[in-house]
Amino acid sequence: MKSTNTPQYRALLDRLIAARKAGGLSQAELASRLGRPQSFVAKIEIGERRLDVIEFLELARILGVTPASVLENLS
């Protein structure tokens, strides 16, 4: 099983998506802040592209959430 298909990873993505929406950002706006194309964010959000730790930390920073709050109770 791919690690992007686990319930925990899906929950992580759902929390990042919720944070993006709560911040009023579209995928395109988030991508622009990351210096990436919109497809980069879309592929992450659908689980097609796996986030590495550094990308996760950058996303959390831009979204204004602490990494710990996103990861809390995922296990």
Task: Describe this entry's structure for a reader.
The structure is a single chain. The protein has a single domain (3-64), classed as 434 Repressor (Amino-terminal Domain), CATH 1.10.260.40. Helix 2 crosses helix 3 (38-45). Helix content is 64%, strand content 0%. The two termini are 17 Å apart. The protein is mainly alpha-helical. The chain has five helices and no strands.
Could you give the topology of this structure?
Layout: H1 7-22, H2 27-34, H3 38-45, H4 53-63, H5 67-71
Number of helices: 5
User: What is the CATH superfamily?
Assistant: lambda repressor-like DNA-binding domains
Gross morphology: globular
Class derived from helix and strand content: mainly alpha
**CATH topology-level fold name:** 434 Repressor (Amino-terminal Domain)
Number of domains: 1
Assigned CATH class: Mainly Alpha
User: What is the alpha-carbon Rg in Å?
Assistant: 12 Å
How confident is the prediction overall: mean pLDDT? 94
Number of E-state strands? 0
- How widely separated are the two ends? 17 Å
Q: In terms of per-residue confidence, which ranges show pLDDT below 50 for 5 or more consecutive residues?
A: none
CATH architecture classification name? Orthogonal Bundle
Largest sheet: none
Name the helicity range.
55-70%
Q: What percent of residues are in strands?
A: under 5%
